Amino acid sequence: MGTRPDHDVADLGLAEVGQARVEWADARMPVLRSIRERFAREQPLAGVRVAVCLHVTTETANLVRALSAGGAEVALCASNPLSTQDDVAAALVDRYDASVHAIQGEDMATYYDHIEHVVDTRPQITMDDGADVISVIHSRRTELLGDIVGGTEETTSGVLRLRALESQGKLGFPVVAVGEAQTKRFFDDRYGTGQSTLDGILRATNTLLAGRVVVVFGYGWCGRGIALRARGAGSQVVVCEVDPLRALEAKLDGFEVMPALAAAAKGDVFVTATGGRDVVRREHYELMRDGALLCNAGHFDVELNLADLRAVAPERRVVREHVEQHVTPDGRRLHLLAQGRVVNLAAAEGHPAAVMDVAFANQALAAEYLVRHAHELRAGVIEVPRELDHEISRLTLASLGVEIDALTAGQQEYLTAWEIGT
C-alpha cells in the first residue's frame, strides 16, 4: 500500500474487519453495484471533487466506491457523531483509498473540524444528510460557492433547512432533494426507518414490545413505517400529529390518534419522527409512567427536549449501553436511548443494505445528473427527476426478479388523447 489519503479515523487496524462487512453489504446492494459497474466503464464523474457528509456505514462505503469508480475524488465525513462504524472508516482509507474524517463518538468540536477538512477539498458536488456541509459553506466558507456545480440532500430534515435557505434567497447552487424521491421514501423512510428504529430500541433495551403502548410522534413516511412495524411486533400504537390530514390517515389506518399530553400518560415507548424540535418536553415528562423509554428517529437530536428532561428528572446514570436512566423526585424512571440521537444508527446499524441500495442509487445518479446538466439548473432545491426514480425502480425490480407489463400502443394513445369520450 502506498501513501494513504488524508484521514482521521479511530484505528486503521480495523480495516480487515471493515472490508468484510463492506463486502457483505455490497452483496445485498445489486442496484448500486450495477451503477458502479457502469460508472467504471463510462467515467461520468471523472475529476469531480465530491464532499460527502453521510452516516459512515457499510452502505455508505459502497456509495463511496461507486462514486470513486465513476472517477470522482471523494472526501467523506460523518453526518452524526454516534453513527460512524470505525471499522468501515478504516477500510475506506486502507482498502479503498478514500479520504475519511470520522470517529465514532467524536465531540462536536471534532465533528465540525472533520466537516471543515472535507470542505477544504473545494468540492464541486456536496452530498449531505442533514445539510451540515451546505450550512458550513453558506455561513463560513462562501468563497467556495463559485466552484460548486450542485449538491444532494438525503433526509427530510436537511431539505427543510435548505428550503429555509432558499426562501431567503441565499441558497447558492442547485440541490437535488434525494430525500423526497418516491423510491427513497418508500424504501428508506417507510420500510428502512420502520425496521431499523425497532432494531435500535430492541438492541438498546432488550424489551418486549408485544403488549406495550408505543407512541409515535409524526405520521410522515418515517412515522408510518415505525407505526406499522410496532403494530407487527404486537404493540398498541398511538399516533400524535399536528397535521389533520395525516392524523386522519393514521386513524383510518387503524391507529389510535390523540394529543401528546394524553399519550404521555398512556405510553410505554415514545418515538419522535417529526423533523421538528421540542416535540416531547416538560409537560409530557411530568405525566409519563415509571419505566418509559424515550427515543428519537429524526435526524437531529432536538425532538426530545433534553434540558426539560434533566429538570424534571435530575438524577441520572447509565444503566445499559445506549440507555441513560433519569429519575424524578417521586421515583419515576425515564429512560433516554442513544442520547436522544437517531436511535436506529446510534444504537444499531441503521437501515438494511437492501434499503440503502435504493437510497444511495438515488445519490449516485443525482450526482451524475448534476454534472451532465450543470449549466441548465437554477440555484435552489430541485426534485429528483422522474426518469431517475423510474430507472431506480426498474433496476430494483430486475434485481428482485420481478417483471411487469408495458402499455400497448392503443393503451398509450388512449391515455394521451382527449377526443375519446363515453
Automatic annotation (TrEMBL):
S-adenosyl-L-homocysteine hydrolase NAD binding domain boundaries: 189-350
GO CC, one annotated term: cytosol
Pfam families: AdoHcyase, AdoHcyase_NAD
EC number: 3.13.2.1
Binding site for substrate: T57, D129, E154, K184, D188
Keyword terms, alphabetized: Cytoplasm, Hydrolase, NAD, One-carbon metabolism
Protein residues bound to NAD(+): G218, Y219, G220, W221, C222, G223, R224, G225, E241, A297, G298, H299, N344, H351
Key word Nucleus present: no
Stored InterPro entries: Adenosylhomocyst_ase-like_sf, Adenosylhomocysteinase-like, Ado_hCys_hydrolase_NAD-bd, NAD(P)-bd_dom_sf, S-Ado-L-homoCys_hydrolase_CS
Cofactor binding note of this UniProt entry: Binds 1 NAD(+) per subunit.
Catalytic activity: S-adenosyl-L-homocysteine + H2O = L-homocysteine + adenosine
Pathway(s) this gene product operates in, as recorded in its UniProt entry: Amino-acid biosynthesis; L-homocysteine biosynthesis; L-homocysteine from S-adenosyl-L-homocysteine: step 1/1
Cofactor(s) demanded: NAD(+)
GO biological process, one term: S-adenosylmethionine cycle
Localization (cell): Cytoplasm
GO MF annotation, one: adenosylhomocysteinase activity
Family of the protein in this entry: Belongs to the adenosylhomocysteinase family.
HAMAP family reported in the protein's UniProt record: AdoHcyase
Biological role: May play a key role in the regulation of the intracellular concentration of adenosylhomocysteine.
Entries under NCBIfam families matching the protein: ahcY, PRK05476.2-3
Protein name stated in the entry: Adenosylhomocysteinase
Species per Swiss-Prot/TrEMBL record: Conexibacter woesei (strain DSM 14684 / CCUG 47730 / CIP 108061 / JCM 11494 / NBRC 100937 / ID131577)
Gene symbol of the encoding locus: ahcY
